[in-house]
User: Fold this.
Amino acid sequence: MDAVFLTFILMLAVLLGFELISKVPATLHTPLMSGSNAISGITLVGAVTSAGSGGAEMATLLGTFAVVFATINVIGGYLVTNRMLGMFKKKESAGK
Amino acid sequence: MNTLVLINLGYIAAAVLFIVGLKMLSSPATARRGNILSSLGMLVAVVVTLLGEGIVEYQWVVVGLVTGGGIGVLAARLVAMTAMPELVALFNGFGGLASLLVGCAALFSSGGETFTIVTIALAILIGGLTFTGSIVAWGKLNEIITGRPILFSGQRAVNALLFLVIGAATVMFCLDPSNTTYLYVVIGLSFLLGVMVVIPIGGADMPVVISLLNSYSGLAACAAGFAINNIILIVAGSLVGASGIILTKIMCKAMNRSLVNVLFSGFGAATTSATTFEGEVKPMTPEDAYYVLEAASNVVIVPGYGMAVAQAQHVVKELQELLEGNGAEVVYAVHPVAGRMPGHMNVLLAEADVPYDLLLEMDTVNPRMETFDVAIVLGANDVVNPAAREVKDSPIYGMPIINVDFARTVFVLKRSMASGFAGIDNPLFFRENTRMIFGDGKETISRIIREFSN
Assistant:
């Protein structure tokens, strides 16, 4: 794909990201961070491509390691965010 | 061709799920569902990639997924809530490392166009710096490495030189990508850069660093996306990059400092304020504190990193319930940079079942500070230091603080008279309306609770 097109996508996504996040209340800063951190594990898609494309041995090796690290990032990030968010309760529903 | 269309449709679905998920993360009521949507987006993206015709062998992919998945599940399950900043830093580092590896692997399959090589170099640089930077941050948060800024003479010169060398090495690498020596040099230098960038930053500035590294891990994924021509990496990576930058900005604003100042000043290293504060410290026993609290009808609790260290969030919740049972109104005032990562205190109090609508932000609490009978400062110091308001030559002058000194009585729960993380004296301790309750925070509150039950 052409570089200009990809850069175009990049600019739109960055601006969208700014818009989405600027209104998050302080209470949710940690889950937001760990949740978006899990999204940054999207590099897993690239890792899978390298590990499974049956190309050069070196690419497969590097790709496999990348899959391991990216999966830790993705799975761990989403689970821990979910665990944290499960603890947030409003006054009425809290109780003892 | 059909599979390619299918893959791209899947990526579009994933991108929509990420965006809606992030949007839903901005309200406590929908946040959990938002996170689940975003994880579905990830699932869709990975599955359509696996279905693509580019994937011919699955064994290594499966090995990687199972290994990483197992480690991730264990880490997420076992970690204590107080260790959350460390875990987030570590996950971040792994994301960066994965992008670096993807960049390297792309080198073997790319056609060698200059644009691709440049983006590979960027993925390696940002990924490498995110990795070692996060590891150093993890070490600092764990106190394996000192939380104090590590400074040495000529640091700026060394860093400037490092930047120049990295620039030169990157150019050489881009001109001759087949020469692996340049590749290794770029990787090594990016690792070194990550270390150099984070070591001069003090523990109290960690919220800024963590959010910045979060942003970098997104940008690294984004660069890797350019390197392998993958739109979903670019979209998701830049969403994360942008959100990290916003958080970083919020944190810097809460400290009234610029990002450059946080990154390069080595705040808290040798801050020798010209003014030292002297006066009479009025200590108080938890038993006497109980009598004051029993008569109070409005109480505000200001938690800080000390609460996390003392693991005091559960006893605080217990005290809150006793006070409420006694007819008092209890709220919490949370400074944006209290603790070691953005929102750190909120997570700890949520763990102790404190409803999030009792957690007020600084700007909500300050205007009504005079109405509180008692302000309990628990393990916070710099974020309640009136010097930030009054003493022009104080290193934290201008930083917005929670004005606890305007409350009728202030209880400061503290281990000793030592100054806070930033190493700055706190005139709050000598105020007429301040009472110091020395000892471990958890122990002190437990003693007050015992008085209530007597």
